[in-house]
UniProtKB/TrEMBL annotation:
Cofactors demanded by this protein: Mn(2+); Mg(2+)
Free-text comment on the cofactor: Manganese or magnesium. Binds 1 divalent metal ion per monomer in the absence of substrate. May bind a second metal ion after substrate binding.
InterPro entries, A to Z: RNase_HII (IPR022898), RNase_HII/HIII (IPR001352), RNase_HII/HIII_dom (IPR024567), RNaseH-like_sf (IPR012337), RNaseH_sf (IPR036397)
GO BP annotation list: DNA replication, removal of RNA primer; mismatch repair
Binding site for a divalent metal cation: D17, E18, D109
Domain (RNase H type-2): residue spans on this chain: 11-201
Function description: Endonuclease that specifically degrades the RNA of RNA-DNA hybrids.
Keywords carried by this UniProt record: Cytoplasm, Endonuclease, Hydrolase, Manganese, Metal-binding, Nuclease
Family, as annotated: Belongs to the RNase HII family.
Gene Ontology cellular component annotations, sorted alphabetically: cytoplasm; ribonuclease H2 complex
Official protein name in the record: Ribonuclease HII
Length: 201
């Protein structure tokens, strides 16, 4: 299925999406992308439906062809302060701030956003599988976040972050139970399913 080129009639429509919202460790990462009006690539899709190799090929394609793109990170400490919903929105707005071309309109993956610079916007459920710019943003957010998780996995190899990217896999939770939480874990999240098993902060 081919994704749509745009939602609005504006010339500089930005798509934005985040990665890492459901993780137990690491940052939430967001990207914003403005694609040319006539841009088309039938390989673009929701990042979750693509292999890691394909995502990296498409990342280069996106960065070389986008009118502008921006990527932002919000770390686990700020997530704990703001909660993940607010942190995700702030991260997407930070990514929009990094665009070198101001967007006329913004489309957002999901169903919740907050006003941004008086720019009109539209939330779109499963937008990363419907619109090219949101799909592009999902690919950038995912690849940049995966790079970060691979880097910190070298520091804490027992948690398997190079494979689970901080998501709540069985291996990840077993490591938390055995070794405790790290400086990268989100302490406001339920890191273990059994609340009677204390963590060693």
């Amino acid at each position: 299925m081919c994704l749509k080129t745009r939602y609005s009639q504006y010339d500089f429509e930005a798509g934005t999406d985040e990665a890492g919202r459901g993780c137990l460790a690491g940052p939430v990462t967001a990207a914003a992308v403005i694609l040319p009006r006539d841009y088309f690539n039938n390989q673009l899709n929701d990042s979750k439906k693509l292999s890691a190799k394909k995502r990296h090929v498409l990342r280069n394609e996106i960065e070389n062809n986008a009118i502008s793109f921006g990527v932002s990170f919000i770390d686990n400490y700020e997530i704990d302060l703001l909660n993940i919903a607010n942190a995700s929105i702030l991260c997407m707005q930070d990514a929009l701030d990094k665009l070198k071309v101001a967007p006329d309109f913004v489309i957002i993956d999901g169903n919740y956003f907050k006003p941004y610079r008086n720019i009109p916007y539209q939330t779109i459920v499963k937008g990363d599988a419907k619109f090219l710019s949101i799909a592009a943003a999902s690919i950038l957010a995912k690849t940049y976040r995966d790079e970060f998780m691979n880097q910190i996995a070298d520091k804490y190899p027992k948690y398997g972050w190079q494979k689970n990217m901080g998501y709540p896999t069985l291996q990840h939770r077993q490591a938390i139970r055995e070794f405790g939480a790290t400086e990268y874990h989100r302490k406001s999240f339920r890191l273990l399913p059994d609340p009677e098993l204390p963590l060693n902060w």
